[in-house]
Structures are given as structure tokens and as C-alpha cells.
Design brief:
By secondary structure, the protein is mainly α. Helix content is about 75%, strand content about 5%. The longest helix has 29 residues. The chain is elongated, with a radius of gyration of 24 Å. The protein starts with a strand and ends with a helix. The mean pLDDT is about 85.
Amino acid sequence: MSDGFQQFSMGTWVIGLAMVMAFIGVFVGVASARKAETAQTSRQRTMWLAWGALSIGGIGAWLPHYIAMVGFEVYSSMVRYDILWIVISLVVPVAAAAGALLIVSPPSTKHRRSNASVEIGRLAAGAALLGVGLVGMHLSIVYSIGIQGSVDFGPALTVAAGLIGFLVGAGVIWSVTSLHSRAVRLAAAMAVAVAVVAMHYTGMVGLSVTVDPTAARPGGLEVFSILFPVFVLAMLLITIPITALLMAPDRVAAEFELEADMLAAESRAAESRAAESRV
């Protein structure tokens, strides 16, 4: 057995594509989660929260991590991926994002205290849950790696990657609940996208591999066998919430329209009363 050498190749386009996908997923996910707050029916609210969780956890977090795996190589050993762990690594962040959004965006009919400490507790719980999901995603991706030998975690950089994951969770929840300017949310999504990619590479650089030439070749799939169909599917899916967001009426415009309708109704009622009084 000998210590293997891991490297990250394929050029800077891998990092660039990962950041772009993280930005798109986070921004669309945050917009969808915010749209859920103004949904008129529980069905619409559930739909927007579902799109938010899928966009944040799947397209904004998992897909960039797995895109970056394209450049992961181990000297003197082929690299394969276990499909079960890959599925787990996708389900975990999506489920965590769904739970976090439900925590910070409870139904309007639910009794909610206005106490500031309660609100802060909800935000902290949502951010923590999303952070745990991101950490679980990273660990699952690492567990999915199969080589002729073993892959071990580096404690220091794994912890550092986990901390970055919790910062990402906090940034997403902060964007959903506190950033009302679209321009500010764009900037926040860019920062979160950089953090998502930084989390991946921090954790991956901390891995140590041991190659055993006598070991059996690993089973599983090549990275492109999983990434290509998932990438195409993700691009198709992300168009749905984007289209819905573009077609949905602006919240401010809708409020003005409602106020105008109310004023018009009051005006008609006043005219009717005036006519009746003249009679």
C-alpha cells in the first residue's frame, strides 16, 4: 500500500461552472421561498417552498459540489462513485432546505408570537438545520468515492468546510427573511455561491488517500455518467420556477392594485349613498 496523490484538474471552467450553478440555485431558491410568504393558497405556498428547497439544496448546493468532482483524480487508481451514496447526498440537502424553509416561513394561519427572541430562535434553527444538511451532503459525497484503497477525512479542513457550510446556511436564511432589495439579494447570492464552492474545495483538499494496487477495482459509476443527465434535468427544472417568478405579479404592484380596487369600491359606495340621500 502507498499514499496516493489526489489532484484537481479540468481547468478553471469547472470552478466557474460550479459557481454559476450555485448562484442560480441560491438566487432562484431564495426568490421562491420569499414568494411563498405572499402565496394566496396553501397549495401555492407548498409549491413555492418545494421549488425553493429543490433550488437551494439541489441546484444551489449539491450540483456545484458534484460538478467540482469532475476535477477530482487519484494517482494510480481509477475513481468511481456509489450511486446509493450519491442519491443520499442529494436528498439530504434538499430535505434540510425544505425543513429550514418551513421553520422560517410557517403558515400564516399558524399562531406566531411576535417576541423577538422567538423570531431569532426560528432563524437560528433554520440556519443550523440547513448547515447540517450541507455538511451531511459533503460527507455523503466523500463516502460515495470508490478507489483502489481508502479515502480518509482530514479533521482540520473537514471541520473548516463544515463551518463554511453553516455560514452558507445562515446566508441563505438571512436572504430569505431579511433582504428585501433584489439587488442586495443578487449580491448575497454571489457571496453564498463563492462560499459553496469554497466549502467543497476546503473539504476535498483535506482528504487523504491510500492506494492499494492489489485491491479490487472499485465498482460504481463514472462522474460524467451521473453528472450529465442530472445537469440536463436540473437545467430543465430550474426553468419552471424562473418562468413562474417572471409571470407572477410583483408584490408591490399587487398591493397597489388591491388598494386601488378598495378605493374604487369605496368611491362607488359613497356615490351610491349620495344618490340615495338625494332621492
